[in-house]
């Protein structure tokens, strides 16, 4: 299938090479991550630990911290029992289970430097082990504090894109549209957007993947205060000109949207991206208006209408 009938300039430098897409697989997931399965890497890399701990989800991060905390205290509880539970003054456990938990909770108090005083070490070896654990606890909590600060201070985007694109009447023709909003109450300034279409094409009896930048009506705004509807005018120079949804599906079309903006809260540049596949493009539809004016004349944004689409008869 030859998707273009005219000479155009392709952009093949997006990091995905020219390998064709099969079975309509995404190249970029809706959350902006690359849809790539990586193999051949070690399960654990020490020099990559910080990156993984800072970028993983919050539930997984707290689970890792909790598991590490339990494992460390269990390890020291076993050591205290091996040295002899009688070396922990105040440990009154009789059964092995009670003795283990006496040592476990003593370890938890020692590693956090709480030291309630109910149980205390005696003997040189036990005191050395308790001192070492206390030092380890100071280092561990300093590290955990640094990780928490790193996670909170890392600039992240809360820009949300509409779930679908629409092809709607625009000026004297049609336009390919999607829209986005900033879910935070801060300001994004100097916002820039790129839209690129990717598709399969037969060239010299070989299927390759093409990338074509889609010209936008406006690719930069000064401040993102309301929603922003991105519009690619479908003119004769557009690769979408006179193309049906069936043709888009045969070419396994995917549209990338990449945004860059300056966040005035973090005072840093943020990036976000998403993609739309051919089945996420609605023909002859339009987005519902997201904002209105209340009785006082103030502009009100209704974020719940981000994905509301009306089919045109």
TrEMBL record:
Major location category of this protein: membrane
InterPro entries the record matches: Ig_E-set, IRK_C, K_chnl_dom, K_chnl_inward-rec_Kir, K_chnl_inward-rec_Kir_cyto
Chain segments annotated as transmembrane: 61-83, 124-149
Record's subcellular location: Membrane
Boundaries of every Inward rectifier potassium channel C-terminal domain copy: 159-311
Boundaries of every Potassium channel domain copy: 69-148
Superkingdom to which the source organism belongs: Bacteria
Record membrane topology: Multi-pass membrane protein
Keywords, ordered alphabetically: Ion channel, Ion transport, Membrane, Potassium, Potassium transport, Transmembrane, Transmembrane helix, Transport, Voltage-gated channel
Keyword hit for Transferase: no
One Pfam family from the record: Ion_trans_2
Protein name in UniProt: Ion channel
Native species: Pedobacter vanadiisoli
């Amino acid at each position: 299938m030859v998707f273009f009938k005219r000479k155009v300039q392709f952009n093949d430098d997006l990091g995905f090479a020219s390998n064709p897409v099969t079975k309509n697989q995404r190249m970029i997931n809706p959350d902006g991550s690359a849809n790539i399965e990586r193999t051949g890497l070690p399960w654990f890399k020490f020099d990559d630990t910080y990156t993984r701990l800072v970028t993983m989800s919050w539930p997984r991060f707290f689970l890792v911290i909790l598991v590490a905390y339990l494992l460390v205290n269990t390890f020291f509880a076993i050591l205290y029992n091996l040295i002899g539970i009688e070396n922990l003054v105040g440990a009154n456990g009789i059964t092995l289970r009670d003795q283990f938990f006496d040592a476990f909770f003593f370890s938890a108090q020692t590693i956090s430097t709480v030291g309630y005083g109910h149980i205390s070490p005696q003997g040189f070896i036990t005191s050395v082990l308790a001192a070492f654990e206390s030092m380890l606890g100071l280092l561990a909590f300093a590290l955990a504090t640094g990780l928490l600060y790193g996670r909170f201070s890392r600039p992240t985007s809360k820009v949300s894109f509409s779930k679908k694109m629409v092809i709607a009447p625009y000026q004297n023709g049609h336009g390919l549209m999607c829209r986005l909003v900033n879910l935070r109450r801060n300001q994004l300034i100097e916002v820039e957007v790129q839209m690129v279409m990717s598709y399969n094409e037969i060239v010299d009896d070989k299927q390759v993947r093409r990338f074509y930048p889609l010209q936008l009506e406006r690719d930069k705004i000064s401040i993102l205060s309301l929603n922003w509807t991105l519009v690619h005018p479908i003119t004769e120079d557009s690769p979408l000109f006179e193309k049906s949804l069936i043709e888009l599906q045969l070419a396994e079309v995917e549209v990338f949207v990449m945004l860059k903006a300056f966040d005035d809260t973090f005072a840093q540049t943020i990036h976000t991206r998403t993609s739309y596949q051919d089945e996420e493009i609605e023909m002859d539809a339009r987005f519902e208006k997201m904002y209105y004016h209340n009785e006082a004349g103030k502009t009100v944004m209704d974020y719940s209408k981000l994905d509301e689409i009306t089919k045109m008869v």
